[in-house]
Batch of 2 targets.
Target 1
Amino acid sequence: MRQQQDTNEFFNILCEYIDNCCPETAQVLKSSLGGVIVNETKSLEADYPYLGLKEEPFFALALDIKDKKSL
């Protein structure tokens, strides 16, 4: 069965497959290509201070480029 994917989808599926079947290879990929993005949630209320951090590992980031439809 054929499935159409863009390069980002294909790359993420490939990395997930490698992570599941070859943990040693996945570690090499994570250390050389991957990174960690941190999502921060911060309260604006002075009476209720809150700071929440959530780390998410990634292999690729999708970026929007202002005023450009293509590269």
Target 2
Amino acid sequence: MLKTDLRAAGVSRPIPRLICLDCSAELVEGTGKVVCPRCGRGWPVLDGIPRFSQPSDYWGDLPQSDAARLLSEARELGWREAFLRRFADDEYLGFSAINWQRATWLSLLGLGRDAVALDLGSEYGAITHSLAHMVAEVYSVEAIPGRIEFTHTRLQQEGISNVHLVQDTAGALPFADNSFDLIVVNGGLECVGEWERARFLSRLHRLLKDTGIVAIGVENRLGTPSLEEIDHSGLPYTSRMPRFLASLCLRYSRWLHHRTALKAYRNYTYSERAYRKLLAESGFASADFYWADPGYDQPYALVPLQTAFLREHLRAKLSDPWQISRSGWPRLAKVLWSSSGFERLVISDFVILAEKGVGPRRPLSERLSEHLRAAVPQGPNLGELVSTLSTNQFSKKNVVRVFESGREKPRFILKTSTPAPGSQEAVESEFRGLTLVREHLRSQINPPFSHPSL
């Protein structure tokens, strides 16, 4: 189809970063579709969402009928009210779609406000929603129609206009190379077929800008499971089984869960060592691994995989009054685990921050070093910096502790705002209060207590 024919058909401007899956030409807007001006291929646009593919099987966390009701209620009652009503008896799912703290790792990236992000497998839009408040543009990709339509409703009701929604699977991804500063794969890597995984990660590497980073939330295959754990398959413990045995269990299972109907095991998780190998083979220059506690969907603590940090976090958890009140072998097992030497091997969930590494990045640690050197020109030279992060569900701030490698005490502590309304103002107010305390203490000859200082 010629360009003159496209103009007659109502084609308008090009769509940034979207390319043809056949010839890689930049796509343009048509009447009810996106069109390739080079080869003429087109894809439908429904409710403002380009639809590049339809999933062959349904793999959502809700049965399809329930998902359809959720979408209808979101349009009628509001997306937040619909989610809380639907999951009134399930605290995890009820809050998972509305909690801005699903993306706590943003505080560790040092992204600029002009950054462009891609959220792959965006589900009901929780991370997309958070990213939209922190970067210039977000491309949100989800394969299941009901989920991407829920996100569309959510963003409309929130008045968010810097998000581009795309319905597609992780297989093709109709985006130009070198397009994104950040790519998020939260809970989707295990759903990519075993033989496709390296190719998928290599594709992400090409989609990143030279200074880009990919944030991956995923389970550790060797991780210690809970007694009540249900795997992605709908059955317990299948991720720890050999693949053929997991598929066999699904084939003959009578467990009532909509995912078991597929009768084949599709989720593939690995250990830290195997993930590192996959990322290196896919071209990534480096990867920082964090223990996401209690899980990558609830990353309220991000702990580097170094023995000192892991043990400190485990012991802090065990000293919690709620943990102390619990007795019996589960707590005893955690006590033994905290000093076993195998902490790193059996943590449950990872957040992985992998750098493309082609160009010079300015990560958070580098920017912090520069600020500290500017504040204290005669101060000591800083070595390699390691950061931990802690927060709470729905908190309006994150606490980042920054250590020099090999030291037990933090060199300095940051409090960062979150994407929630009023978060920045809350952190700024706290900073003003701490500044007043510092100035008051400095004015006293013998202050009753000390305060942190540069």
